[in-house]
Design goal:
The chain is an alpha/beta fold. The chain has 10 helices and 7 strands. Helix 6 links the parallel strand 2 and strand 3. The termini are far apart.
Length: 319
């Protein structure tokens, strides 16, 4: 497919923004400046950007305990996210969600669900609502490879299938559930093959190729728009950071990790832009410089923002 230069550069910028955001946040946590904990998205940027770049206004994203990449790709500002990570009232969830519950429904992202597979029934229910309201929209339900063995996965996908709901189940297969390799948990070669059990298409793509993800997502959305129901989209990728902030990744073989670093999506896509004369080294350097400035401004703003008052803990409650 032919793409406009501006669109391709926007994909690069979104991926680079995710990576730089995650790198800055990592050091803020390690320095003890930022509270809480984190599960970072480094290496998986092409999945979030490829999926979310295909979405339209009114479409919804559900996320996991690793939501930063999804949030940036869906359009949340790094300032509102940084404020959230610092627990400030000006954060996207008023400082009450933190890293694992980040989102903004006005931007098309439900606050993330940290329970493994916990968002799958929710995404299916929202897709049911869209169908009942006759909306021409979809739900993109992100999950990790570990989610496919949870009961909520099977129940949610089955319901999406039998009711032909407009939901795309996006499996980010980074080969590890925390530290357990995928081959120790399943016997199918492709997780997308599980779609056959529910009578829906299963598609496996290179999750480090942002355009491959984007095109597969467009096809899945077109199918949903025709009333043909869900698609199971498996994106093969690799987490080039720890499962959480203090994970040294000793379970990842050195040779495997070396290959993953060579195939990581940002450098790979940047090289594609250079080879196709769609960008110069100066263009990419300028983009990365602008991102660094934006992130530093967000950090300073977040650190200066007000902390919530103690009584705020009693607000936004269902009683």
């Amino acid at each position: 497919m032919a793409y406009e230069k501006e669109f391709l550069l926007s994909l690069y910028k979104k991926m680079a923004l995710i990576r730089q955001f995650e790198e800055r946040v990592k050091f803020l946590f390690l320095e003890g400046v930022m509270p809480g904990t984190i599960h970072q998205y480094n290496g998986q940027e092409a999945v979030a950007v490829g999926v979310c770049s295909a979405l339209q206004p009114g479409d919804i994203v559900t996320s996991t305990h690793r939501p930063h990449g999804h949030a940036i790709a869906r359009g949340l500002s790094v300032e509102s996210m940084m404020h959230e990570l610092f627990g400030k009232t000006t954060g996207c969830c008023k400082g009450k969600g933190g890293s694992m519950h980040m989102g903004d429904l006005e931007k098309g992202m439900v606050p993330a669900v940290a329970i493994v597979a916990g968002a799958i029934p929710m995404a299916t229910g929202m897709a049911l609502a869209m169908k009942m309201k006759k909306q021409q929209n979809v739900v993109a339900c992100f999950m990790g490879d570990g989610a496919v063995n949870e009961g909520a996965f099977h129940e949610g996908v089955n319901m999406g299938s039998i009711w032909s709901l407009p939901v795309i189940y996006v499996i980010e297969n980074n080969l590890y559930s925390a530290s357990t390799p995928i081959f120790e948990m399943v016997r199918v070669k492709k997780l997308a093959d599980r779609g056959a059990a529910y009578g829906i298409p299963g598609v496996t793509v290179d999750g480090n190729d942002v355009l491959a993800v984007y095109e597969a997502m467009q096809q899945a959305m077109a199918r949903a728009y025709r009333g043909e129901g869900p698609t199971m989209l498996e994106c093969m990728t690799y987490r080039i950071t720890g499962h959480s902030r203090r994970d040294p990744c000793n379970y990842q073989p050195e040779a495997e990790r070396k290959i993953a670093l060579e195939r990581e999506p940002i450098g790979r896509f940047g090289n594609h832009l250079l080879e196709q004369n769609l960008a110069s080294e100066d263009d990419l350097a300028r983009v990365n410089g602008e991102i660094a400035t934006e992130i530093e401004a967000a950090v300073k703003s977040a650190m200066a923002a007000p902390d919530p008052a103690p009584e705020a803990a009693l607000e936004d409650l269902f009683v």
